[in-house]
Design goal:
By secondary structure, the chain is α/β, with parallel strands linked by helices. It is built from 13 helices and 14 strands. The strands form three sheets. Strands 5-4-6-7-1-8-14-13-9-10 form a ten-stranded mixed sheet, with helices on both faces. A two-stranded antiparallel sheet has the order 2-3. Helix 7 crosses helix 13. The longest helix has 17 residues.
């Protein structure tokens, strides 16, 4: 028998708030966290805007020595995990540490460390490289540092599937609990790739918006969309088996009902043009939960603001949900926080849980000009108060990776 899995804690570091409450209130208010890049000089760059995390001090979450041994993506992950564990009320003194695991991924890892130390090597020679370069840069260190900081000795994995990383990480944590490998999993994604090579690389791919207006840069499903805006941050949740959560009297936010994962097997950057791969991920998640398309109230779309993604994801939602696609609310959290790459799925999953908890679907900010090919209800203009019993969260990554999580209102059976 598969065990039921519930959400008992959440933590977030985002461009519009460094905790879940601030992040969620900003989403409800339609706050856009995009601004001119300040981390480096963009004079020679095509893309000038990003969604940067603001006022982040790692020493609020860990001691100074630990912080110095982590790159920014690991610091974000540890900070969000701390909030999530405290929110869940997990007391490790009362837990078997080998039954508490971590599934936290990063799409790229310590890109800034690679860039910084490569420059040092070219200018000063190989003997000047930081001895900690490798543990600073490798993407599994977000998960590893969470385990170290909080004494979590169970299954510890790092799923890397580009922009689908956070969603796959939560999905694999869900499976680990379902099948008895762990009682508790800390899961999600973290990313910090607003660096010269990160921005230049995605711009060279023509993936980034070249708009210099923060309100017209990340505009998913808008006819004038022309690329995504790079974001950074972390979204981490605590998942538990229902029995474990109930035994310790935990507050239950929602239940993870299903998980679907597929591959387009089509192109290294473009989604399948008919949306079939993403549609199948949604179909699998719905079936995994024992539900039907008509049970879905809301879809948190991948919604990157690139021409191909938004068009093909619209086709995917229609394929997966059929006629019901026109009756669901759809939005894109990226309209306010940009694209957090490997962290996107973690942060967007939290948005889904909060939508269920508070009965509210946030606006797709910046959506003004309708696109006749994107003809579903993308929550244009303002957010909507409504009962959300069942939500889908989609993430689609370069390489053709598709992942969907189904989260629903918790009901005791």
């Amino acid at each position: 028998m598969k065990r039921r899995v519930v959400v008992t804690g959440m933590g977030a570091i985002t461009p519009i708030g460094n905790d879940v409450e601030t992040f969620w209130n900003s989403l409800k208010n339609g706050t856009v966290g995009i601004e001119p890049i300040t981390i480096f000089d963009t004079a020679d760059f095509k893309a000038k805007l990003a969604a940067q995390v603001k006022d982040f001090d790692p020493k609020k979450y860990m001691d100074n020595k630990a912080a110095r041994r982590m790159e920014r993506f690991s610091q974000f992950a540890v900070a969000a995990a701390k909030e999530a564990l405290e929110d869940a009320g997990i007391d490790m003194a009362k837990e078997d540490p080998y039954r508490v695991g971590v599934s936290v991924g990063s799409g790229i890892g310590g890109l800034d460390a690679i860039e910084r130390e490569t420059k040092k090597m070219v200018e000063k020679g190989p003997n000047r490289i930081n001895p900690l370069l490798v543990p600073l840069m490798i993407s599994n260190m977000a998960a590893g540092n969470i385990g170290i900081q909080f004494g979590l000795k169970g299954k510890n994995i790092n799923v890397v599937t580009a922009c689908a990383t956070g969603t796959h990480s939560i999905g694999e944590a869900f499976r680990s609990i379902q099948y008895g490998e762990a009682d508790v999993m800390v899961a999600g994604g973290s990313e910090a790739s607003i660096t010269p090579i990160g921005i230049a690389g995605f711009a060279a791919l023509t993936a980034l918006s070249t708009s210099e207006d923060p309100k017209r840069a990340s505009i998913p499903f808008d006819k004038e969309r022309n690329g995504f805006v790079m974001g950074e941050g972390a979204g981490i949740v605590v998942l538990e088996s229902l029995e474990h959560a109930q035994a310790r009297g935990a507050k239950i936010y929602a239940e993870v009902g299903g998980y679907g994962a597929t591959c387009d097997a089509y192109h290294i950057t473009s989604p399948a043009e008919d949306g079939s791969g993403a549609a199948k991920a949604m179909e699998v998640a719905i079936a995994d939960a024992g539900l039907t398309p008509e049970d879905v109230d809301y879809v948190n779309a991948h919604g990157t603001s690139t021409h191909h993604n938004d068009l093909f994801e619209t086709k995917a939602i229609k394929l997966a949900l059929g006629d019901h696609a026109r009756r669901v609310k759809i939005n894109s959290t990226k309209s306010m926080i940009g694209h957090l790459l490997g962290a996107a799925g973690g942060v967007e999953f939290i948005a889904c849980v909060k939508s269920i908890e508070e009965g509210f679907v946030h606006v797709t900010a910046g959506l003004e000009m309708d696109d006749e090919e994107c003809d579903l209800d993308y929550t244009k203009g303002q957010g909507v108060a409504m009962d959300v019993n069942c939500a889908l969260s989609n993430s689609l990554g370069f390489g053709g990776h598709n992942a969907t999580l189904l989260v629903r209102k918790f009901v005791e059976e």
